[in-house]
């Protein structure tokens, strides 16, 4: 009786083992179902999106082209000097493209002089203020951004004529001008919030005319004076990004 019982248990064990082995073999032989492709979002190293503000300092140079009419004479005092101020802006990054808008304002001391057509007098010009509101479009390589910029420019100028021997002012003309600004720059992010930039800008303020009369730029008082101003600048800026994000690029 015991022998029959042991034989039955052994047969049952062998049967269970065979079934388990067959199931495992069936699992190993079954084809693997494909995994659906999904977008994997990976963080980029740096994102330029957000508001920013900062300060800048630079060097500028240019000319004031004076034309006297109806005498037909002219003179072009050159100007150069330093300027400094601040800027505010906003960037929005799409993949490597960075779009933005920036406004800046600078106190300036760009001045120069030359002899007037009548050598008994000196003609002098000075830029006291430079500002602009511009769009920006750039290309970012991680923390490095190269960009072009352009928009509306604002300037304030002061022009004077002096008696050459005594350096006594005999005429004056101050005016505020609106023109355009074009430039390009390179910006680098040292930390997630701090960047520096190197920027070149050209300003063209067009022409304005002072009518003849007592105290005008023409010492004789008979000529009107038409003045055209343009300025080149190179500046170094420091910016703080108030809001930045990790950024993301979808890869498939």
Automatic annotation (TrEMBL):
Q: Which residues form the signal peptide?
A: 1-25
Q: What cellular component terms from Gene Ontology apply here?
A: cell outer membrane
Q: Which UniProt keywords apply?
A: Cell outer membrane, Membrane, Signal
Outer membrane protein beta-barrel domain boundaries: 45-242
Subcellular location(s): the record lists:
Cell outer membrane
> What family does the database annotate?
Belongs to the Omp25/RopB family.
Origin species, per record, is: Phreatobacter cathodiphilus
Q: Could you tell me what this protein is called? A: Outer membrane protein beta-barrel domain-containing protein
User: Which SUPFAM superfamilies does the protein's record reference?
Assistant: OMPA-like
InterPro entries (UniProt xref): Beta-barrel_OMP, OMP-like, OMP/PagP_B-barrel
């Amino acid at each position: 009786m015991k022998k029959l019982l042991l034989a039955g248990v052994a047969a049952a064990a062998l049967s269970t083992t065979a079934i388990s082995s067959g199931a495992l073999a069936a699992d190993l032989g079954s084809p693997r179902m494909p995994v659906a492709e999904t977008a994997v979002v990976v963080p980029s190293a740096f994102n330029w999106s957000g508001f920013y503000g900062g300060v800048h300092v630079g060097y500028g140079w240019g000319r004031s082209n004076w034309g006297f009419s109806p005498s037909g004479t002219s003179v072009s005092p050159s100007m150069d000097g330093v300027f400094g101020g601040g800027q505010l802006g906003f960037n929005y990054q799409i993949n490597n493209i960075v779009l933005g808008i920036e406004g800046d304002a600078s106190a300036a001391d760009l001045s120069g002089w030359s002899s007037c057509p009548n050598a008994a007098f000196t003609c002098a010009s000075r830029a006291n203020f430079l500002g602009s509101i511009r769009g920006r479009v750039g290309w970012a390589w991680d923390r490095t951004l190269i960009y072009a910029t352009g928009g509306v420019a604002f300037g304030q100028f002061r022009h004077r004529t002096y008696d050459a021997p005594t350096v006594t002012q005999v005429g004056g003309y101050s005016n505020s001008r609106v023109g355009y600004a074009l430039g390009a720059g390179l910006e680098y992010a040292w930390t997630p919030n701090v960047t520096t930039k190197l920027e070149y800008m050209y300003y063209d303020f067009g022409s304005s005319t002072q009518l003849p009369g007592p105290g005008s730029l023409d010492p004789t008082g008979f000529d009107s004076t038409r003045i055209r101003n343009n300025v080149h600048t190179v500046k170094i800026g420091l910016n703080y990004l108030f809001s930045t994000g990790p950024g993301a690029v979808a890869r498939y």
